[in-house]
Design a protein that fits this description.
This protein is mostly helical and 139 residues long. It has two domains: 35 residues; 100 residues, Cytochrome c-like domain (Cytochrome Bc1 Complex, Chain D, domain 2), CATH 1.10.760.10. Bound molecules: heme C. Heme C (HEC) binds next to helix 4, helix 6 and helix 7.
């Protein structure tokens, strides 16, 4: 009787300690992912594409930017074309760090800038990268 209790105890100990290591490993993996630069994660992850697509709708970008046609702002395809041609960086533009290169008409720039000053600046680096990945994926 005593012996089986001891064995049970050992087995339980074994399983718990195994569980602990597993958890530790998973935690480490999660931390590694979180530390990776957003731009690197984005390229490999469909999640980012999905997040970008979702943000593009929920953050109202889609109201002014349609894939093919100019609505209030230039179409996503037109933006992509110019950003590719000129080697632009959408994230830098959204952060307000680089000037408009697609439509430089001051009135138009002011409309977009109102969004940046209003709420785009509060998006995380991850969210901005996701938006950029989504926009670039529209072909
Ligand atoms: C109220 C309308 C409106 C909304 C909402 C809007 N934009 Fe714009 N956007 C514009 C206009 C107008 C331009 C053209 C002026 C310009 O190029 O800066 C523009 C231009 C851009 C450009 C090109 C900038 C350049 O280099 O010329 C990007 C990239 C962009 N928008 C991304 C976004 C994203 C991402 C969102 C959502 C977070 C968004 N826009 C929401 C109106 C809007």
């Amino acid at each position: 009787m005593k012996k089986s209790v001891l064995i049970l105890g050992l087995v339980a100990f074994f399983f718990t300690s195994c569980g602990e290591t597993k958890k530790e490993e998973v935690k480490k993996d999660v931390e590694a992912v979180e530390e990776a630069p957003a731009s690197e994660k984005v390229k490999t992850s469909d999640d980012y594409l999905a997040l970008g697509k979702e943000l593009f709708t929920t953050k109202t970008c889609v109201t002014c930017h349609q894939p093919d046609v100019k609505v209030i702002g230039p179409s996503i395809k037109d933006i992509n074309k110019i950003y590719t041609e000129k080697g632009g960086n959408i994230v830098a533009f959204l952060k307000g760090e680089s000037p408009a290169i697609v439509d430089t008409d001051p009135g138009q720039v002011a409309i977009m800038k109102a969004n940046i000053d209003g709420f785009v600046k509060d998006l995380t680096a991850e969210e901005l990268a996701a938006l950029s990945v989504y926009m670039s994926s529209v072909k």
